[in-house]
Amino acid sequence: MKQNKYDNKIFFEKYSKMDRSTKGLAGAGEWETLQKLLPGFQDKRVLDLGCGFGWHCQYAIEHGAKAVTGVDISEKMLTVAKDKTDDKIRYIQMPIEDITFDENSFDVVISSLTFHYIESFEQIVEKISCCLVPNGDFVFSIEHPVFTAYGSQDWYYDENGNILHFPIDNYFSEGERTANFLGEKVIKYHKTLTTYLNGLLQGGFEVTGIVEPQPSEHLLHTVKGMRDELRRPMMLIISAKKK
Amino acid sequence: MKQNKYDNKIFFEKYSKMDRSTKGLAGAGEWETLQKLLPGFQDKRVLDLGCGFGWHCQYAIEHGAKAVTGVDISEKMLTVAKDKTDDKIRYIQMPIEDITFDENSFDVVISSLTFHYIESFEQIVEKISCCLVPNGDFVFSIEHPVFTAYGSQDWYYDENGNILHFPIDNYFSEGERTANFLGEKVIKYHKTLTTYLNGLLQGGFEVTGIVEPQPSEHLLHTVKGMRDELRRPMMLIISAKKK
Fold first, then answer.
1. How far apart are the CA of A225 and the nearest CA of chain B, in angstroms?
2. What range(s) does the Methyltransferase type domain occupy (chains A, B) (predicted)?
3. DSSP assignment, residue A230?
4. Which contiguous run of DSSP H or E holds residue A209?
5. How close B170 gets to chain A, by Cα (Å)?
6. A220 inside 8 A of chain B by CB
């Protein structure tokens, strides 16, 4: 199933009001960590899978990328991206499952919080490996398998509404989950850590970095509820190099 | 703190009755997965950290290892190991934190379910990197960060004693946890996935395999409660190569 929840009017409006939408990269809690794992962009050809509003594309262009391509399934998101980011960026509206770029088309592939919307990670790795040059960089963030396993992506509460802990269940049953995101039902695909990491290794990549981002001191002090994000890992950021 | 729970009489007796103690490797649910990640042992010098009853040492000897060294803190376990395994194996009673082998002493380092008893993974990686030859193999299993985070290592139950899910909490607060293992209190050290994996990468290793073992079909059908192990990841097995 190729999902396009972001073209749902209500969902899109809610998403557009999130910090990461209005403030760009500075509004994304994990950006500081992701940034450290990114390669240099100078003179590189960059592909961003699930580019959304194009913030990462814009960052790559501003840091010297020779050419930047953003792919996203959502028409609404790409409309904003085209309006708000550099004209040199090429945007393609397409499900990521359908990309077919020529061999050695890119020096860097990035993807932010997108692959948990896609059923087969193996297939994506194969497609990326094909269009990435040898020694090319592949850096991506995903929702952590701990965060996607149970399904609801919500805490477990006591009868007074206080958080007790975060629940894990059905960890080894990969596949569709219905999560509650911004008050809307969103389909995501749970995959194990093994599927992501061994998938990369088997797909011909060397893993060069793995970090579970934690909120910065600044966010811990300014955003309500952010301290709870120290209780569970919500995201995973991985950097890899094509062998 | 260097722990030696295994020399506690009551704990040792209980541990000695577990399948993995009486049946050896065949009684360890994760062995089938671990075995696939092991390198060839022919003519290799092998070090086993936290060797316990020596089952992995014996396996290495039987598979052609030139020399095998097993290190464990527990006198009781090593007494059994010396009695039950090949005389060519050298056993050393010592906390793993204290090992100081010469450079290039080993071609392979293995460790089974031991590092969660040790506070600093970084220190261990440094010591292993020192005594392992370049391109040497390092393969180990640990309790999964998901399994160690909360502390009790027990499921969360409803009022009738039925399993609801497995709880996660305090994920980013690494350090001491008191787990209930075989009805005894055991101190373990929770570490995040980032600490283990990025620790390896930063320590000069290439990660070559990562698998969260699942119970085999045979175990699912013969061991009561084993099906619940599909609901949470209990272990993580990692293979790496010194660069």
1. 14
2. 47-140
3. G
4. strand A205-211
5. 4
6. no
Q: For chain B, how many residues are written?
A: 243
Per-residue pLDDT at B1 exceeds 80: no
Computed over every residue of chain A, the mean pLDDT equals: 94
- Tokens of residue B113, six digits: 């379910």
Confirm or reject contact between B166 and chain A (CB < 8 A).
yes
d(CA A157, CA A164): 5
User: Are A231 and B156 a contacting pair at CB < 8 A?
Assistant: no
Pick from B168, B41, B33: which is nearest to B113 by CA? B33
Q: Using one digit for the tens of pLDDT, what is the confidence trace for B198-216?
A: 999 999 999 999 999 998 8
Instruction: Please answer whether residues A85 and A54 qualify as being in contact, where contact means their C-beta atoms are separated by less than 8 angstroms.
Output: yes
Q: What gap in Å lies between CA A161 and CA A100, rounded to an integer?
A: 48
pLDDT value, residue B182 = 85
Percent of chain A residues past pLDDT 70, beyond the cut: 100
Band (A86; pLDDT cuts 50, 70, 90)? very high
CA distance A212 to chain B (A): 6
Q: Check residue B233 and give its pLDDT.
A: 98
| Closest residue by Cα to residue A63 from A84, A88, A80 | A88
* Pairing of β B205-211 and β B235-242: antiparallel
A158 in contact with B, Cβ within 8 Å? no
Q: How far apart are CA A89 and CA A69, in angstroms?
A: 6
Cα–Cα distance between B242 and B205 in angstroms, integer?
A: 4
Please list the residues that pair with B163 across neighbouring strands: B157
Token pair of B105, please?
């002493």
State the Cα–Cα distance between residues A94 and A101, nearest whole angstrom.
Answer: 12
Contacts A192 to B, Cβ<8 Å: 212, 233
Contact B233 A165 (CB under 8 A): no
Q: How far apart are CA B69 and CA B76, in angstroms?
A: 17
ipTM: 0.94
pLDDT, tens digit (0-9, with 9 covering 90-100), for A223-240: 888 899 999 999 999 999
Contacts of B198 in chain A (CB under 8 A): 209-211
Q: What domains can be seen in chain B, in order of their start residue?
A: 9-19+39-145+190-242 (3.40.50.150)
Sign for the CA dihedral angle at A122, A125, A129, A134 comes to negative
List, for residues B116-156, the tens digit of each pLDDT value.
Answer: 999 999 999 999 999 999 999 999 999 999 999 999 999 99
Q: What is the pLDDT of residue B23?
A: 86
Residue A31 touches partner B, C-beta closer than 8 Å? no
